[in-house]
Amino acid sequence: MQLTTKQRAYLRSLGQELRVQLHIGHEGYTEGVQRSLEELFKRRELVKVRVLNTTEEEPKEVAERMAEAARAAVVGVVGKTFVLYRPNPDLKEPIVLPR
User: Fold this and answer.
1) Are 79 and 53 in contact (CB under 8 A)?
2) pLDDT at residue number 37
3) Which residues pair with 82 in a beta bridge?
4) Distance (Å, whole) CA 91 – CA 9
5) pLDDT > 70: what percent of the chain?
6) How far apart are CA 39 and CA 33, in angstroms?
7) DSSP strand pairing (22-24 vs 46-51)
8) What is residue 77's predicted lDDT score, i.e. its pLDDT?
9) SS in 3 state form for the chain?
10) Alpha carbon of 67 to those of 38, 79, 84, 92, 93: distances in Å?
């Protein structure tokens, strides 16, 4: 999924207000984490994820792998936190992206 710079900036601003919904621990990115991510995407379009200090994996690499597996887009990575976006037309109020 490709986002324009303007869309990415808009989603990043929405992601600032979010609390972290998913933590990746010392085991790193696992199938269980992917299932949890899929459950979160059923109820929302933006998911904020934090990679804990006990994880040996780099946050940017984890974000890319998770986005690819979930057919989502990486909105931004800051430190050990990142935001993923996947549109969900079934929601009552989906996010309307700028053109």
Assistant:
1) no
2) 95
3) 49, 77
4) 22
5) 100
6) 10
7) parallel
8) 96
9) CCCCHHHHHHHHHHHHCCCCCEEECCCCCCHHHHHHHHHHHHHCCEEEEEECCCCCCCHHHHHHHHHHHHCCEEEEEECCEEEEECCCCCCCCCCCCCC
10) 11, 17, 7, 23, 22
CA distance 39 to 26: 21
State both tokens at 6: 């303007």
Q: Find the distance separating the first CA and the last CA of the chain, reported in whole Å.
A: 15
Q: What is the pLDDT of residues 11-48, one digit of tens each?
A: 999 999 999 999 999 888 889 999 999 999 999 999 99
b/e string for 30-66 if b means 16 or more Cβ within 10 A?
Answer: eeebeebbeebbeebbbbbbbbeeebeeebeebbeeb
